[in-house]
């Protein structure tokens, strides 16, 4: 922005998690991060709000579908080998 303060709309867009891109004479807005990153960060934020991480994670696991549980096990196994 060349050292000038961002207009109010640009500042609101940044706070809303959007990236402002020049589009012709105006601007287009796009998410600053993909859905997976946004969701993962939201999950981490919620986990950090709780005091009993074990209980929160245990409850999370009991709420997973069998397919999601298998996928999580697979991801944990693959991450552990690196």
Describe the structure.
The chain is α+β, with helices and mostly antiparallel strands and 82 residues long. 60% of the residues lie in helices and 15% in strands. It has helices at 8-15, 35-49, 53-63, 66-80; strands at residues 18-23, 26-31. Strands 1-2 form a two-stranded antiparallel sheet. The longest helix is centred in the middle third of the chain and has 15 residues, at 35-49. The chain starts with 7 loop residues before the first helix and ends with a helix.
Report the radius of gyration as a whole number of Å: 19 Å
Provide the spatial order of strands within the biggest beta sheet.
1-2
Q: What is the number of strand segments?
A: 2
Mind summarizing the main beta sheet? 2 strands, antiparallel
Estimated structural class: alpha+beta
Q: How large is the count of helical segments? A: 4
Distance, first to last CA: 41 Å
The chain-level mean pLDDT equals: 81
Give the low-confidence spans.
none
Q: What portion of the residues fall into strands of 2 or more residues?
A: 5-15%
């Amino acid at each position: 922005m060349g050292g000038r303060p961002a207009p109010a709309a640009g500042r609101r867009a940044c706070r809303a998690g959007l990236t402002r891109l020049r589009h012709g004479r105006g601007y287009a807005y796009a998410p600053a991060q993909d859905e997976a990153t946004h969701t993962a960060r939201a999950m981490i934020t919620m986990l950090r709000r709780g005091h009993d991480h074990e209980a929160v994670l245990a409850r999370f696991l009991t709420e997973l579908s069998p397919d999601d549980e298998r996928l999580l096990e697979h991801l944990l196994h693959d991450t552990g080998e690196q």
